[in-house]
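Schema walkthrough. Field components (list of strings):
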Amino acid sequence: MANAKYVIVANWIKEQIDKGKLRHGQKIQTEAQLSKQFGYSRQTIRQAISSLINEGLLESTQGSGTYVRKSKRSDQASRVIGVITTYNTDYIFPRILGGMEEVLADHEYAMQLAFTHNRVSDERRALELMLQSNVDGFIVEPTRSALPNPNMDLYHSLIDQGYPLLFINASYQTLPTVHVALDDRKTGKMIYDYVFERGHRKIFSFFKYDDIQGHLRYAGANDASKLHGEQINDDDIYWYSTEDFEKGIFDQRLLERLKNYTAVLCYNDALAYQLLEFLEKHDMHVPEELSIVSVDHSDFIGKSNIEITSVVHPMQKLGSAAAKTMLEMVQKPSYNTSVDFQPRLVEGNSVKNIQIQIGGQDE
Amino acid sequence: MANAKYVIVANWIKEQIDKGKLRHGQKIQTEAQLSKQFGYSRQTIRQAISSLINEGLLESTQGSGTYVRKSKRSDQASRVIGVITTYNTDYIFPRILGGMEEVLADHEYAMQLAFTHNRVSDERRALELMLQSNVDGFIVEPTRSALPNPNMDLYHSLIDQGYPLLFINASYQTLPTVHVALDDRKTGKMIYDYVFERGHRKIFSFFKYDDIQGHLRYAGANDASKLHGEQINDDDIYWYSTEDFEKGIFDQRLLERLKNYTAVLCYNDALAYQLLEFLEKHDMHVPEELSIVSVDHSDFIGKSNIEITSVVHPMQKLGSAAAKTMLEMVQKPSYNTSVDFQPRLVEGNSVKNIQIQIGGQDE
DNA sequence: ACTTTCAATTTGTACGTACAAATTATGTAT
DNA sequence: ATACATAATTTGTACGTACAAATTGAAAGT
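Field assembly_structure (string):
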């Protein structure tokens, strides 16, 4: 190795920054001090510092001193926003991206895109790639937001470096940041209320356990049940993960289980329409025998004539709101106004009205 | 101004490069020569050269000399591929992008995305944005590929600058470049052949006139008709544009017109399923009264139970093939192998077999 | 309490020397 | 003619000095 002296000094300063002994914006030793410390001439020290300035790690002001740069990037805006979502094949993501792209393009910003396929390893790779290619800010749809996330180190260093970070659809619980999302708790409450008000008392639910939206929609449904003096039991819920869904969760046993209920709350339309198809294949009629209510109000229509009653997902609006928020954040680093879209339910013909009695809210 | 000496020297060298007196790859004067020429010390000259090296204009080799860099851009790969498509909301684009993203991410490349909404002004904006943000190559789905394109200046300067440029789905006729696409001419031939072989002789067609795919599929259908000794008349074709389709092209007059035919060739599924819905609303049965064949084989299913017979669009495969081709082009600038996907037809139940006579191919 | 002035500190510019390391050109031996 | 050793050339590292320019903080003045 036997490096040159100035390389030794440069590496030493780098280490100090990495170790955290020198923080962003902090002043480093003066050239004279370093010269004395290492026993090298001031010129050699200057060469070391000069190389680090070129790397963008330091900046110095005549008469004042040399400082650690606040962030590697702030020098020039690249006018590119990094967007990381789980999928693009789904029914809502293309719309979200469309909404974003429109706003970003209007403001002469480009969009850099990566998908995580809801896998944290892909999320890591996506974040690292985008950090390398110098984006101005990050719009991220969390991956497995309800589970411990191994990429928190990256998110934290990202925040430390001053990158605007905005989450859509959900946010990580351990990371207090700005978000643009559907109010999932109220959404859960709304779909429970809807079937309850139409007389349903035996209510089954499908919720995702790896996304925080599943937790929140469950919590909302729970809120609603308690307000009505009801209680959701563990048996009334089917928790599933992304992988479970991909493998397929419907079988004979589940069919038998569902026969004890009159209504089903679905985490989203992807599940709801699969359920609908499954039920019709096994001659269980919707909504006569079983009512279904869901979330997303996607316009993909199954083979049946049933249109599922569901809460509307803002999609385009969510995308454009996220883009607008991000552009605010890029300009004002202090901007931290989250957007929560209030749920709105659109009626289809998937819920049967079985009004037992008028005003019969108590048991 | 009264600049520092090293700034004077640096500016002088810059001028020499700009004036063309020093060309890319050429060796500049030695430090000793410059020192003598300016009457400044070698250290001062070194400082000037050092600043230009940091700007990326020069590079020097110990023992050999200092040289003008070949080009500003090729020095560092940004590992970002620019992708410009018309839409993302459609049924095929999310899949194409998905296929691309997978391959690019696997090779640690990021994807920068913009949509043109099939408008040349948006295409221009997208190209300009991407040129600014330093991408390594362009994957472009042409906008209104059949009409004269006002952005040819940008495409030409892009090629001149040595950017790899790859077109998907279609290509501009005036621009000889690499492409990855479905063989649209054969596709047109295939759908014509399919209905012809099932006895249809009164064949109507819907083709887009602003995309070259429309022209090619029409040409293919024409090829087929001639081989069968038939002739497509002008009255047998409905030419439409992106705007026409958005406004809606189906009306009573068209319905009357279609009653003279037994089969319809559709440019793509977006049109075919709208046509299907329109026909059913007006009590015209498919395929009993009118057969439909189309292109894309999208899996979105209309309210009816009809599944339209159509040529499969490669989608994911096309996306990943495009990404792979682009990565080849980035590595080898000479790479110019286009990929043409051969059409494959998947049968639904939208075409009636009206075999008039066996082997009755003449007239 | 506020401003002004001035000195000390710190980085920036400029020149000089010396030798090391890599490349290139030259000359010599085979 | 080819291979090898050697010299010359050219950039890289390192130290030194000197002064300029900008900032900072303390002292002095109002």
